[in-house]
Design a protein that fits this description.
Largest sheet: none
Strand content: under 5%
Radius of gyration: 28 Å
Number of domains: 2
Number of helices: 7
Shape: rod-shaped
CATH topology of the largest domain: Ferritin
Helix content: over 70%
Bound molecules: fe (ii) ion
Order of helices and strands: HHHHHHH
CATH superfamily of the largest domain: Ferritin, core subunit, four-helix bundle
Number of strands: 0
């Protein structure tokens, strides 16, 4: 600022110019930086938002965690699609149907999360996926793998919820509540099938009955927006 003051300025005016310049510098450099870091939710900082971008409902950490979970949901879909193929090859059309519906559900979960991230102002990104397992030793092993996988998903969703709480994102918490409820059902479904498969102990007639029961499952679309 000192470059702009007139050459014949008095000593007192000079001091004022210097002080004013220092305050202005502080405002221009420190204050916006502070606002960028702390976000100041609910306050009108439209000028700062114009230069530095406004806050979103999701922090960068949350967006990253949601993107990882979107990938994990699609990975889950692939796991169940591979199981569908296994059951189809082993002549269990009912179990293949159950896995096909599970595949559709997982894709719907990914879609729901994807739409949430976009709507909340985050940048959804697609990540690389692991190859799923294609072979199983028995229907029981496939469903035990399903339950173990769902338990991992439950743990991941719980951690995501903890992060949403830490980051004080109410929107993310509301979105994740749906997934927490869904996981209770996911684990219960797989557990019940495992119990039934253990009951019949590989008996052909018992397996046929379970297969017929699982043929009844239909995909019920969920609200993805
Ligand atoms: Fe899921
Ligand atoms: Fe699932």
């Amino acid at each position: 600022m000192t470059a702009f003051f007139p050459a014949d300025i008095s000593g007192r005016a000079f001091i004022k110019w210097v002080i004013f310049g220092k305050i202005l510098k502080k405002f221009l450099l420190v204050y916006p930086l502070f606002c960028m870091i702390s976000h100041f939710p609910g306050k009108n900082l439209s000028l700062l938002y114009f230069f530095y971008g406004g806050p979103t409902m999701l922090s960068k950490k949350l967006v990253t965690a949601f993107n990882e979970q979107i990938a994990f949901e699609i990975h889950s879909a692939l796991i169940y699609k591979a199981m569908q193929a296994y059951f189809a090859a082993e002549d269990f059309p009912g179990m293949a149907n159950w896995m096909g519906v599970q595949y559709q559900e997982e894709l719907a979960h990914a879609e729901k999360m994807f739409n949430f991230v976009c709507d909340a102002g985050g940048r959804a990104e697609m990540l690389a996926l692991e190859q799923p397992r294609n072979e199983f030793s028995s229907p029981l092993e496939a469903f035990e793998t399903t339950l173990a996988h769902e338990q991992i998903v439950t743990e991941r969703i719980s951690k995501l919820m903890e992060l949403a709480q830490k980051e004080k994102s109410h929107a993310a918490q509301i979105c994740l509540q749906w997934f927490i409820t869904e996981q209770v059902e996911e684990e219960a479904n797989a557990s019940l099938i495992i119990k039934k498969l253990k009951m019949v102990e590989g008996d052909g007639r018992g397996l046929l009955m379970i297969d017929q029961e699982l043929a009844q499952r239909v995909f019920v679309p969920i609200a993805t927006a």
